[in-house]
Amino acid sequence: MLEFLRGTARTPSPLPLFPLKTVLFPGGILPLKVFEQRYIEMSTECLKHDEPFGVCLLKQGDEVNLPGSERHRAEFAEIGTTARIAQCDVPQLGILHLRTEGGTRFKVHSHEVNELGLVMAQVTAIASEPRAALDESHRPLVELLDLLMTRVGREHFSAQPALDDASWVGYRLAELLPLPLAIKQTMLEINDSEVRLKVIAQFLREQGVL
C-alpha cells in the first residue's frame, strides 16, 4: 500500500471505491454522511487498517441504492482520488459522519461489485504533480482563491494552505468554482498545473470575473 500511495507501484492494487456525484481533488476536504451498510463496513475497515478508499465521479446511476435500482449499471470516471478518513463521528446508530482528505490520484483498470454492492477496483496511482511556484501572471487567481476561502470558511480547507503552489491553487479553484462536473473531472485529469491554471483563468475571463 505504501508504494501505491507514493505513486511508485507498477502493478494494480485493490481499492474500495465510493462513486459520488462530486470530484475530490488532492489536498481537498470532503465531508461524508455514511448510512448504507456497504459504506459503513468499508469505512470501518479503512479506519481499522488506516487505509484510504477511492472517490470517483459518478457519471450514471445513483449514490444510494434505491428500491428497484440496477446498481450494476452505475458508471464512474476511471480517474479518481484516494480519500483518507481524518475524523469520524457517530451521531446515532447506523450513521457515520466522516471528514476525509484527498490524497493520491489513481486510474481504475478493472472493477467488480461484491454482494453488498461495494465496488472493488484494481488501480494504479498517478504520480503527484511536482510542487511549482506560481507565475506572477496568476496572482489574480491567488487573490480570488484567498477571498473564496475566507467566505467559505478556512476550517473547510487543509490546516496548511499552499497559496504559493500552482498545483494546490489550481485544485482549490477547480473544486470551489461553479464548474460543470465534467469540467471538474477534466481539471483532475490534467497533469500540468500551469495548463490547469490557464484553463481556469480563461473560464473566469469569459465569466467577467478576471
Fold and architecture overview:
It is a single chain. The longest helix is centred in the C-terminal third of the chain and has 14 residues, at 139-152. This protein folds into 2 domains: 2-125, Archaeosine Trna-guanine Transglycosylase, Chain: A, domain 4 (Roll); 136-206, LON domain-like fold (Orthogonal Bundle). The mean pLDDT is 90. It has a 5-stranded mixed β-barrel with strand order 1-3-5-6-7. The chain has 210 residues and is of the alpha+beta class. α4 crosses α6. It contains 6 helices and 7 strands, in the order αββαβββββαααα.
Span between N and C termini? 42 Å
> Could you give me the name of the CATH homologous superfamily of the largest domain?
LON domain-like
Helicity level: 25-40%
Main sheet makeup: 5 strands, mixed, barrel
Structural class category: alpha+beta
Rg for CA atoms: 18 Å
Question: What is the global morphology?
Answer: globular
The overall pLDDT average reads: 90
Total number of helices: 6
The number of domains is: 2
**Uncertain runs:** none
Summarize, please.
The chain has 210 residues and is α+β, with helices and mostly antiparallel strands.
Q: Could you list some keywords that capture this structure?
A:
single chain; alpha+beta; Archaeosine Trna-guanine Transglycosylase, Chain: A, domain 4; LON domain-like fold; 2 domains; 5-stranded mixed barrel; 31% helix
Chain-wise SSE layout:
Blueprint: H1 2-6, E1 13-20, E2 29-34, H2 37-49, E3 53-60, E4 75-76, E5 79-92, E6 95-113, E7 119-125, H3 139-152, H4 166-176, H5 181-189, H6 193-206
Parallel strand pairs: 1-3
Antiparallel strand pairs: 1-7, 2-6, 3-4, 3-5, 5-6, 6-7
